[in-house]
Amino acid sequence: MANVELSNINKTFGAVETIPDLTLSVPDGSFTVLVGPSGCGKSTLLRMVAGLEEPSRGKISIGGRDVTHEEPSKRGISMVFQSYALFPHMTVEQNIDFGLRLSKTPPEERQKRVDAAAEILHLKPLLKRKPAALSGGQRQRVAIGRSIVRNPDVFLFDEPLSNLDAALRNQMRVELADLHERLKSTMIYVTHDQVEAMTLADQIVVMNAGRIEQVGAPMELYNRPQTLFVAGFIGSPRMNLITGEAAAKEGAKTIGVRPEHIELGERGAWKGRLRFAEHLGNETIAYIDSELGELIIRINGDHKMKPGEVLQFQFLQEHIHRFDESGRRIQ
Amino acid sequence: MTSAASIHNRKSRSIFADLMSSKGQAVLLLLPPALLLFTLFVALPLFDAAYYSLFKWNGYGTPTDFVGLDNFRQVLNHGIFWESVRNTLIVLAVSLFIQLPLALGLALMIYEKTPANTLFRLVFFLPYILAEIASGLIWSFVFDGNSGVASAIFKSLGMDPVFILADRHWAFLAITLVVVWKYFGFHMMIFVAALQSVPKELLEAARLEGAKRWEVVRFVQVPLIGAAIGVSAFFAVVGSLQLFDVVIPLTNGGPSNSTHTIVTYLYSFGLTRNRIGFGSAVGVLLFLAAVGVSIFYQYQTNRRSK
Amino acid sequence: MTYARLVPQLARLAILLIVVTFVLGPLTVAVFGGFKTNGELLASPFGLPSHWNTEFYSALLNDPGFWKYLGNSLIISLSTVVLTLIVAAAAAYVFAQIRFFGSRMMMSYLLAGLVFPFATAILPLFIKVRDFGLLDSYWAVILPQTAFGLSLSILLFKTFFEQLPKELFEAAYVEGCGYIRFFWRFTLPLSTPILATVGVFAFVQSWNNFLLPLVVINSRDLFTWPLGMMQFRGEFLVEWNRVLAFITLTILPAVVFFVAAQKYIVAGLTGGAVKG
Ligand SMILES: Nc1ncnc2c1ncn2[C@@H]1O[C@H](COP(=O)(O)OP(=O)(O)OP(=O)(O)O)[C@@H](O)[C@H]1O
Ligand SMILES: [Mg+2]
Per the database record, which ranges form the ABC transporter domain (chain A) (predicted)? Predict the structure, then answer.
């Protein structure tokens, strides 16, 4: 059992309160993804779980054990850094079994675990190389390998794929999903990337300015954002947020409609002028100046449109999200 | 054949054109001052040293009394020379095996960027920029058996004051102490700069892997600043070889010539006695030692980087 | 932090304070010593003076000889700085900016000076300076000193120049700006940090230099302060308080200068050391 419980965590750097009061529960075996704008405290949170920062107040427990003041290495966690943090003067093999050597693990055992990790991550041919002689993706695998061999209960990842190019990112994403499937350990993962969040997570935590906006399964966040912030943050292109009369008619301060939930057609209640359209092949993203403000509409790919063209559209009634003046969802 | 000639032609024309171009003018105007100064005052004297070392010469007129390697024979048969070599080696050993570890230990304590650490670094570095001669003089007061700090310490311990700098056993140790005082801050600064350039995540990663503080030092920080340690060791060796200024105010080579370094030896037995040939021979030996050290250092760094 | 518990923190602080005492102890003894009478100095060499006698300091400050020493040192040091900056920057610019046959070789030649102990050639240098008729003149110190500082200075300059954006030169070149004009108009103005570093470095080296002036300067009128100090020490063999006052007055400006310029000194050191 390695669920992670954070209760009433506060983190203050000097005079700056980065995390005011945060409570979060990460179930055993879950793949929990932390997302949020830059500087909102994701890394800080992760580093507190790792033990690299100590919370100013509050309690952290892993697997039911209070680890708030425990050494990082005694928490049963491992961490993969954005910069990989491989030791440049050691070979891949030495990097991977560094912790095992420190803990005086018998050589046969060490060999076994390194071999197993190398097998999973396809590192066999690279074991004798130094990190400088590896590609970005290979380095990332070594970093993951280093965390695997210690059999941690909880894996922590801080934007592990952000230094890779798009193709490699996709590939590594799939490998990470595989890894979770295979190891079934708890994973906490920080990312900026929507796609990573949506595809990898079984629980997404949306953070904003040190607070949790919403916790839930990816589709739940997508379909039922509880706050305006989450509504605007999850989904790409982002949700259209409309205030004023159109919102009032729905009994809300603000309404949100996702680009794919706007329908074009003569029957449409609203009008707008096409500013420009991005033809992506399988779909078209239209940017419209309308009486409701600037809107984004997503339609299928073979739609031919010209800038300046006047379009009529309407919202799919059952997909309108309503928010009150404090930005909370109206149920 | 014609094509070869024309290529050659074009080439020589382009060299000529080059010289007249803005590029050529720049080279011809900006480089010679440095070359001239360096050649006149650094390179030529080195060759002169080799030449003079073959003569018995008091420095007046031109050297005529060719004596072959006799100056070298004399130097190498001189007990005081060997004592100066031994002393230089002691400084070298103290620099390498006491001063450098001390500097490294302190650097590890204060490399992180905090206001207090900045202040400590400033203080530790201070002796390095003070003149050697002033430092030596201050310490010669500290060690003075009549009125110095050391004498007061001896008295307060109820012992007879020892004239440290006049004592064959203590004088040179006192000099090495001053050397450490004067230069450890320099080495510490090199280590601090190197330690600051080690990415923080590496230390955190090691910590996550269960490394204790000293294991982080031993397995991560020290190996990663290996190049800086090499540079520092190199400076320590070259610095020891040319130690002079500090010794003069402290002991001036005494008592009974027991605290000479190679350079004070050269100065006392070559220059002040107008034995240019003899002194040059000492210089040549010193030069050879420096070259040997440099070659060794190059060899080591090449091997490391492989 | 979990890592740094109280006991190691205290131990660390204790060690640092011991080293601070070791470093500053002799310096404070010197400063206070200058205020003590010789009798008091004998009785209690450390500790605050019981009475702040300023006479020894003021005697020095009123001694034209003392100011003469400082003045000589200042003239020599400033000239060395100016000469070093011009000559080294010009050469480094050529190495950094212009590819030509033999450039690498000349570069190694000039950098070889990094390795040679100054003292190896001090005797022939003395002969050279004498043969040039420079003995007992400012130039006798300035020129060799500059020459020996060239290696490090050129290295520091070259490293810096190479980091300046290449596009700048290309743009200027297209506009018809030649190499020399570019050096004056762009490279030098953009290089103030490294000029400061090299300048400060050359100054400190020159200000503290002892062996060279000792060998090439004879007349007391031209003594730099280290020579003057040794002279003074010889004259007041038993009056340590006067000697300590002399030392204090000469290292005080150095300390002030150091605190003000330490950024550049450290930059030069670590730059030269790490890259050299
Ligand atoms: N050691 C520190 N000292 C002072 N402030 C810090 C420290 N570490 C983080 N902060 C501050 O805490 C806030 C949260 O930082 P954190 O690194 O957790 O953000 P993040 O969500 O990971 O951002 P990003 O997505 O850019 O990585 C930031 O405002 C940052 O400036
Ligand atoms: Mg972050």
Answer: 4-234
